[in-house]
């Protein structure tokens, strides 16, 4: 057969090159597909035909055909060139996506992303449980935590050999059966004062403390929201107590300025145009219409709470001044005049949110802050119930609301989520809002920007909202009734560490910066760092306590050594950040109570390392950090910082007992009752039953933080 004949046969069979145009004989139109003709099979003349579908080549029907390969009888598509081009396009797309992922991940971690690590062609990333610890692959266990020796492998944990960690908090029972629960993540000052049942002699609870208010206004403001106030004189007096317009504008500006880092502030235009202007016009119209309307009273309640919060951050007033408390009472009474039990508006919920914020700040000025904070927690739960009762948790577009109304509803709801999540976390209690029921979108971020490298950065408030969603996941997983496996806890640790932080808001603990950041940036960095580090500290604290109890002489060889390293690093950062930020923004730090609370939690960790594990490499550095913490508490304790003043004695006792244990090196007495109290303050399950009320904590209350220790040297600790 000649080459021409062979070429003619191939063309007749349909195996012609793509560039050759097939000439068909006139009058002959093929009725079968090309593949059926090649195989001499019956074709049903459908596209694709049944034969091609059965053979798995429906993509080439009716014009394409398969050809027999030269090796192993493999089949290749006739249009292989087109498929090759498609593969090249996909490969190019994958390379672009990998480059983008590499740049994005470099902003949040120094380690390569697991998806960017070369994998063995014969094994996928999830084939082996040891894949994360195999040489050449990134470790999935706290790879960002500095190890004392990188050649040492992390301890392997068997999920079937997990030990029960009883860290469910403290339950207190009073003489009359009254009870209160503090979970494992409760603030340390709450746990110190948990056994107390004496009433809190709050500053500013007598009518004589408010000479500008009439007695009836004081009494009505002190009542609950279940019954509305219908006294016309009270409504009129609320409007008459408004400050001058110039003073009102000054307080509004202070409130808006602090809204960049302290709370979610209303937009300036909304505050001035829809609230301030309307209220002051209504106040001037009282002579014509003496009974203010429902909407005016709701807006007035919000305005008074704006004045209240502005006064809290006013340098002309002492912390938690009586003037702020007076504004709070007037705002509360204005809300009672338009009772939220019957008519609910966005202003209603906004006012309740701000009232809860004020109570949390005001709680720091007393000797027993957990009482007022507990009431703030209750009031915020009430606000959350009201919010869900008007459907704030549901996406507003489902009701076809306009964009402005949707954004306002979303802003109020996510304030509820943030406040509810964090106050529940500080009490160790489950949040009132379950995100499984929520599809409300986050409000638009007015501070969102793109950096010089093209990366999208959230604003401060948007970041807090996003991180609170992760906090809910941590609380529902690690702090729930069912204790997760240690591997699951390490997975949560990785999620927290990998959570992106805008480049401009990343803290630089212990490092000098070429350009000194502004006060606003310094405070925002500090608050964002607190959010992540206090979450990590509470996440690892039960396992850290377990390692201290079981292996104080060899913490780094314990199976929970990752938790020891993680909690030491978080405690160091909390102390260092407090000192650094106080040097840049002393006024804000001194008035912000949560920062001092987290620093005290860090001090407890440092004291535990010194007193319970003096032979570890952490002990000398921990003692040094505890001295530095005590120094800043003593320096700031005073009228300007009620939080530091109320907790300085606890920190002093921590320091004293740490130095005593370090100098004496006594053997640990396992029968000491202090160890049981230590477990309670570490979050373990405990029941306190009072035989008689105690007016003040015992002088040795902080002894359980540390206990007694065995003898040891003090090697150099690992770098933080």
TrEMBL record:
This is Zn(2)-C6 fungal-type domain-containing protein. Residues 39-71 form the 4Fe-4S ferredoxin-type domain. Gene3D superfamilies: Zn(2)-C6 fungal-type DNA-binding domain. One of its GO terms (molecular function) is DNA-binding transcription factor activity, RNA polymerase II-specific. It is found in: Nucleus. Residues 32-61 form the Zn(2)-C6 fungal-type domain. Residues 1-15, 661-682 have a biased composition (Basic and acidic residues). Residues 73-107 form a coiled coil. Keywords: Coiled coil, Metal-binding, Nucleus. GO terms for cellular component: nucleus. The keyword Electron transport does not apply. GO terms for biological process: DNA-templated transcription. Residues 1-26, 108-159, 655-720 are annotated as: Disordered. Residues 122-133 have a biased composition (Polar residues).
């Amino acid at each position: 057969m000649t080459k021409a004949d062979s070429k003619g046969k191939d063309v007749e069979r349909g195996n012609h090159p793509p560039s050759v145009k097939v000439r068909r004989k006139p009058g002959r139109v093929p009725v079968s597909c090309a593949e059926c003709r090649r195989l001499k099979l019956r074709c049903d003349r459908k596209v694709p035909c049944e034969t091609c579908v059965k053979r798995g080549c429906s993509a080439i029907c009716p014009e394409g055909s398969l050809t027999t390969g030269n090796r192993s009888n493999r089949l290749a598509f006739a249009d292989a060139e087109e498929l090759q081009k498609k593969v090249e396009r996909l490969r190019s797309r994958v390379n672009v996506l990998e480059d983008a992922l590499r740049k994005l991940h470099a902003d949040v971690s120094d380690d390569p992303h697991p998806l960017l690590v070369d994998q063995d062609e014969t094994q996928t990333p999830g084939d082996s449980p040891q894949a994360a610890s195999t040489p050449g692959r990134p470790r999935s266990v706290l790879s960002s935590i500095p190890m004392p020796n990188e050649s040492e492998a992390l301890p392997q944990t068997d999920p079937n050999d997990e030990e029960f960690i009883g860290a469910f908090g403290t339950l207190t029972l009073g003489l009359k059966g009254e009870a209160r629960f503090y979970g494992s993540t409760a603030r340390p000052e709450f746990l110190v004062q948990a056994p107390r049942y004496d009433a809190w002699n709050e500053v500013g609870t007598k009518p004589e403390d408010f000479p500008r208010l009439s007695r009836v206004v004081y009494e009505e403001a002190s009542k609950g929201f279940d019954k509305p106030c219908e006294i016309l004189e009270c409504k009129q007096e609320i409007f008459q107590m408004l400050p001058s317009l110039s003073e009102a504008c000054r307080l509004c500006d202070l409130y808006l300025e602090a809204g960049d880092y302290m709370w979610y502030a209303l937009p300036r235009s909304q505050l001035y145009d829809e609230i301030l202007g309307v209220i002051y016009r209504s106040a001037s119209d009282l002579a014509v219409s003496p009974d203010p309307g429902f909407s005016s009273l709701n807006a007035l309640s919000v305005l008074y709470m704006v004045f209240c919060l502005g006064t809290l951050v006013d340098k002309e007033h002492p912390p938690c001044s009586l003037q702020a408390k007076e504004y709070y009472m007037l705002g509360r009474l204005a809300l009672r005049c338009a009772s939220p039990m019957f008519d609910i508006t966005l202003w209603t919920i906004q006012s309740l949110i701000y009232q809860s914020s004020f109570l949390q700040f005001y709680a720091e000025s007393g000797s027993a802050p957990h009482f007022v904070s507990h009431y703030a927690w209750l009031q915020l739960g009430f606000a959350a119930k009201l919010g869900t009762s008007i459907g704030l948790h549901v996406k507003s577009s489902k009701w076809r609301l306009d964009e402005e109304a949707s954004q306002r509803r979303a802003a109020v709801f996510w304030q509820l989520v943030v406040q509810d999540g964090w106050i529940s976390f500080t009490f160790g209690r489950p949040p009132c809002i379950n995100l499984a029921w929520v599809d409300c979108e986050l409000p638009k971020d007015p501070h969102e920007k793109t950096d010089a490298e093209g990366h999208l950065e959230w604003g401060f408030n948007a970041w807090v909202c996003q991180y609170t969603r992760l906090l809910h996941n941590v609380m529902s997983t690690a702090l729930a009734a069912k204790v997760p496996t240690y591997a699951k806890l390490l997975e949560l640790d990785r999620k927290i560490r990998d959570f992106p932080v805008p480049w401009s808001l990343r803290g630089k603990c212990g490092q000098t910066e070429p350009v000194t950041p502004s006060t606003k940036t310094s405070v925002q960095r500090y608050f964002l760092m607190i959010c992540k580090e206090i979450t990590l500290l509470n996440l690892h604290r039960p396992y850290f306590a377990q390692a201290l109890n079981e292996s104080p002489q060899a913490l780094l060889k314990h199976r929970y050594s990752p938790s020891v390293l993680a909690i030491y690093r978080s405690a160091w950062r909390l102390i260092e950040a407090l000192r650094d930020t106080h040097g840049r923004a002393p006024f804000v730090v001194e008035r912000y109570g949560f920062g001092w609370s987290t620093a005290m939690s860090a001090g407890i960790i440092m004291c535990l390392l010194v007193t319970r594990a003096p032979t570890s490499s952490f002990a000398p550095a921990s003692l040094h950090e505890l001295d530095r913490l005590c120094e800043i508490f003593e320096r700031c304790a005073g009228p300007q910082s009620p939080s530091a003043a109320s907790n300085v004695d606890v920190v002093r006792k921590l320091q004293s007992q740490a130095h005593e244990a370090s100098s004496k090196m006594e053997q640990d007495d396992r029968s000491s009752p202090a160890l049981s109290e230590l477990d309670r303050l570490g979050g373990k399950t405990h029941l306190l039953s009072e035989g008689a009320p105690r007016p003040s904590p015992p002088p040795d209350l902080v002894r359980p933080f540390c206990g007694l220790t065995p003898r040891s040297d003090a090697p150099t600790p690992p770098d933080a």
